[in-house]
Amino acid sequence: MVSSPSQPPIQGYKVRPARRGDASPIVALLAEFGLSADPNTVTWIISHPEMELLVAADQLDKVIGFITLSHRPVLKTGGRAATIDELNVAPAWRRKGVGRELLRRVVERAKVLSVKRLELQTYGAVNGDLSAFFRACGFEQAESAVFRLK
Asked: Which of 36, 57, 56, 37 is nearest to 45 (CA)?
């Protein structure tokens, strides 16, 4: 487990709220996965009142992973619902607890926000390892369908 942000990191990384200066490193990390993003959008997310963006950073404060949480009031839940929109960890840092700690921190934040429903979205097919990881972190596959406007 990683200690709180005010304490020294354990296992060579720490988790902290994203800062404006993290926008370019986050975009660079996404590029490693063949994904494109705009630093301005990352900055927008960092400052948005209904978004949370946490980063995992190594001992030199280089971003090695991040997670985003969007939350909003929803009529059907009678309160707030939240979605984990992004979870990315640099390949060299996978299987070292970084993704699990980022998820743990977001779940704790959702509790503080009194979220009634927390969902995690993935894009494309979910392989067996990823599915097993999410299940080990307490998530179950939902019976739902997603439709997008073309």
From this structure: 37
Instruction: Sketch the domain layout of the chain as residue ranges.
Output: 13-136
Higher model confidence: residue 7 or residue 121? Answer: 121
Give the integer Cα–Cα distance in Å for 15 and 143.
32
Please check whether residue 120 is in contact with residue 102, taking contact to mean a CB–CB distance below 8 angstroms.
no
Are residues 64 and 17 in contact, defined by beta-carbon separation less than 8 angstroms? no
Cα dihedral 67, 80, 109, 121, rounded to 10, equals: -20
What's the rounded Cα separation, in Å, for the pair 31 and 33? 5
Q: Please give the CATH architecture assigned to the domain spanning 13-136.
A: 3-Layer(aba) Sandwich (3.40)
Give the tens place of pLDDT for each residue, 93-120: 999 999 999 999 999 999 999 999 999 9
- Output the DSSP codes for 33-83: TT----HHHHHHHHH-TTEEEEEEEETT--EEEEEEEEEEEETTTTEEEEE
The pTM for the full model equals 0.86
